[in-house]
Design goal:
Blueprint: E1 11-16, E2 75-80, E3 86-87, E4 91-96, H1 99-104, E5 114-117, E6 132-133, E7 143-144, H2 155-166, E8 170-175, E9 180-182, E10 201-205, E11 223-225, H3 226-237, E12 247-251, H4 258-261, H5 272-286, E13 296-301, H6 304-309, H7 316-319, H8 322-337, E14 344-350, H9 373-381, H10 396-402, H11 408-419, E15 424-431, H12 438-453, E16 458-461, H13 469-478, E17 490-496, E18 502-509, E19 512-522, E20 528-535, E21 542-549, E22 552-562, E23 567-572, E24 576-582
Parallel strand pairs: 2-20, 4-5, 4-16, 5-8, 8-12, 10-11, 12-13, 13-14, 14-15, 15-16
Antiparallel strand pairs: 1-19, 1-21, 2-17, 3-17, 6-7, 9-10, 17-18, 18-19, 19-24, 20-23, 21-22, 21-24
Helix pairs in contact: 5-8, 8-11, 9-12, 12-13
Length: about 575
């Protein structure tokens, strides 16, 4: 994680089942819209492959209620299970292991589907003795035992992977590509360039060459071989992999700013050609016999300026857009070497949206429990930059680079389709702030729904500050009843008539059309009347509601009620998210 600038609300999870809430059946003579409501997303993008094709047939719709009309002052949600059926990647509900977790001594969020061991410290991780150096993030430039006090080779990474697999969770480790990694854990600030300080740094290489020390993980030579590291991990885990317990590899972390985060190791800005050569070499090593089927995540760009120019790389003017160049050249490398060397294009995206007076909502922004209304509003609208071509955020990205909307996921998917079709897409670090306010939960929940709808392959939330609300958002998808219950893994079309006020995400489970999960978000400070209509082959009769709001960051079952048909009214609480499970 690194932040460089160049260039609220409550949530309710509603599960449909029996209570005394304000619910009415819509009379048969209720006026209907004469036209289809404006969808909340752009045209359906080219799907990014996930682990399995859709295996459930599309049912014949027997309960047709669409479209429903929005009530006065409210919105309409129209759900159609025949349309836009998409398998949800199991890896979008991921989190990062961060400094905060280690300092607190607390475990990672237990209901995540994917854990990532990344960040600036992993760039210099010496797997032979578990030393690392966080560069300018800590010390500065102190090599220490933060990742592990043990000198047993690979133990820091192995413990991380074992913990994830023990929770039936996928994991990703970072493979350093920089020229040097930490040599020791002396815990003193370093000042000399790594190239002239062999006492404190070791040469980092992808392959172990012929003639090198025959010893495994030789701690007395001046080299660290990542090939040995991968062989070690694959020897431990290759036979333990499943879809849910996948092990992925990342080609380092935020290379565009190595010269700023790790100036002793990389004193000059890296060029397009240098980073490309390193990416190809290290991926070829990973894709060797030991990890031939492992997925490799590459680019791992910190933010927008790195997407475009590799943070003003010296050859940017010659090669143009960095991600386009990277994708094109990795495609060429596949042809040359006979195997795909980039499986997943990975970027980081911390919202840069600000209020009209310039207050940031995530990075260096308001994070207290009582943010002003302008911060709340900017935060809950910020996820629209992931997909909405009509939304122009207040940021240097929209002003200095684009003079228009960020529209992040469609634009990245377009780069992939044009330059290297078949590459998956990941956001391995992101945050919307609001850790101690419901607005943080609303933004986080909206992002999780968008990731599913836009067919992201993987995503990992990065905790900037300690706070419960972003994890409460995860709970609404992964643990809404406190007993580990999850929403479905098959998304269907859900459309709101006003995405400034609300969002709606609809799910089924593969192979089971009898239960539906709706995650409904009220982004406003007032109660929001909603008319809900559903086209589906099953007639639902009951609903149960779980909610979080500005008063409580733990989901609770607030109401249960009966419904007569696949259309009903509901009132969403102020600043809330409601996941509605229909049975």
């Amino acid at each position: 994680m690194h932040f460089i600038k160049t260039g609220l609300a409550a949530w309710s999870l509603i599960i449909l089942s029996a209570c005394n809430i304000q619910v009415e059946n819509i009379p048969e003579n209720t006026p209907r819209l004469k036209t289809t409501p404006t969808p909340t997303s752009s045209a359906t993008p080219t799907p990014i492959p996930t682990s399995a094709p859709i295996s459930t047939p599309i049912p014949q719709v027997v309960m047709s209620t669409l479209p429903v009309l929005a009530p006065t002052g409210g919105v309409a949600f129209n759900i159609d299970t025949k349309k836009n059926r998409k398998i949800v990647s199991p890896y979008i509900y991921g989190v990062n292991e961060t400094v905060a977790f280690r300092l607190r001594g607390t475990p990672l969020y237990p209901h995540a589907s994917f854990y990532r061991l990344g960040g600036n410290r992993t760039t210099t991780y010496n797997w032979e003795n578990n030393a690392s150096n966080a560069g300018m993030d800590w010390g500065p430039n102190i090599s220490d035992s933060y990742l592990g006090s043990s000198t047993t080779s690979g133990l820091a990474a192995a413990n991380f992977i074992s913990s994830a697999m023990g929770k039936n969770t996928a994991s990703m480790v970072t493979v350093p590509m920089v020229p040097f990694v930490a040599a020791n854990k002396n815990n003193v600030p370093l000042t000399k360039p790594a190239a002239t300080d062999s006492a404190n740094w070791k040469i980092n290489m992808a392959f172990k060459p012929a003639g090198a020390s025959p010893s495994f993980a030789d701690k007395n030579d001046g080299y660290v071989y990542q090939q040995e590291f991968i062989n070690y991990l694959e020897g431990l885990y290759s036979q333990k992999r499943t879809e849910s317990k996948a092990l992925f590899y990342s080609l380092d972390n935020e290379p565009g700013i190595w010269s700023e985060t790790h100036p002793l190791v990389v004193p000059q800005k890296i060029s397009y050609t240098d980073l490309l050569a390193r990416s190809i070499e290290f991926s070829r090593m990973i894709k060797g016999n030991a990890a031939a089927t492992a997925l490799v995540f590459g680019a791992v760009a910190y933010g927008y300026n790195e997407y475009v120019t590799l943070q003003d790389a010296p050859d940017a003017h010659y090669y143009g857009d960095w991600l386009n160049y990277f994708l094109t050249q990795m495609k060429n490398a596949e042809v040359k070497y006979g195997k795909r060397l980039l499986d997943v294009l990975d970027v980081h995206f911390y919202t840069e949206n600000r209020t009209s007076d310039g207050t940031a909502v995530a990075i260096n922004g308001a994070s207290d429990a009582y943010p002003v209304e302008s911060v709340i509003s900017a935060r809950v609208q910020a996820p629209r930059s992931l997909w909405d071509a009509s939304f122009v955020e207040n940021s240097w990205i929209s002003r200095d680079y684009l003079n228009g909307p960020v529209n992040l996921l469609p634009s990245l998917k377009k780069k992939i389709s044009q330059s290297y079709p078949g590459t998956k897409l990941s956001i391995s670090e992101y945050s919307y702030g609001g850790e101690n306010h419901i607005s943080g939960a609303i933004a986080q929940a909206d992002a999780l729904g968008i990731f599913a709808r836009e067919e992201l392959f993987a995503a990992n939330y990065y905790e900037l500050r300690e706070g419960a609300y972003p994890y409460a958002a995860f709970d609404m998808f992964r643990n809404y009843d406190g007993m580990g219950s999850k929403v479905g893994d098959l998304m269907v079309e859900g459309i709101t008539t006003d995405h400034t006020k609300s969002s709606i995400y609809a799910y089924l489970k593969k192979g089971d059309e009898t239960v539906m999960y709706l995650v409904a978000i009220n982004k406003t400070s007032a109660k929001l009347p909603v008319n809900i209509g559903i086209n589906h082959s099953v007639k639902f009769s009951s609903a149960s509601v779980y909610q979080i709001d500005e008063h409580e960051a733990v989901p609770s079952n607030t109401e249960n009620f009966k419904i007569d048909a696949n259309k009903f009214n509901y009132i969403l609480p102020p600043y809330s998210v409601s996941t509605i499970l229909l049975k």
